[in-house]
Design brief:
Number of helices: 5
Shape: elongated
Oligomer: single chain
Structural class: alpha+beta
Largest sheet: 6 strands, antiparallel
Order of helices and strands: HEEEEHEEEHHEEEH
Length: 176
Amino acid sequence: YDYSNAEYDYMNQPYYTLAKTSKVAVITEPYYDPTSGMNMSSCSMPIIDEAGTFLGCVTVDIELGTIQNMVDSIKIGEGGSAILVGATGVYLGGVESELVENYGKITEDSNESLAKAGKIIMADVDGMTTYVKDGNTYHLYYSTLSELGWKLMIQIPQTELNQPVSLLLVKLIIVC
């Protein structure tokens, strides 16, 4: 009953207002739910009668810890990994847990190079950009999850991308 009292005012919550203006299922941006004590997103499907009148919505809450763990476990090569951000650039996984817990945004990251790359990523559907961290250049390949607007990125160090070419060059020099 914590969600159905006057103080909670569910009709003005994002999951309800988004569903009210949609004809398909919608997912909210991440938020902290004080009742459950978890970071989550809500998926809401509007209930519309035959006349097209909005009657309410069916809602499922998604605890984001599972998604965060999945993204955190993705490893590409030796030093590559994945990053997931919401439709507004809020970190959902692949970064330090404090950034996820405090709703840090890629476009406001303390690393100015990554924040600049984040602005490019948020303005585009998919592509590739780079950023510099601790003197190393990283390539960021990104794509938008169309139904959610979330961005999934794969990052890999430039040195790791160059490694096969460097090894081939050494072998060619030895052969010559």
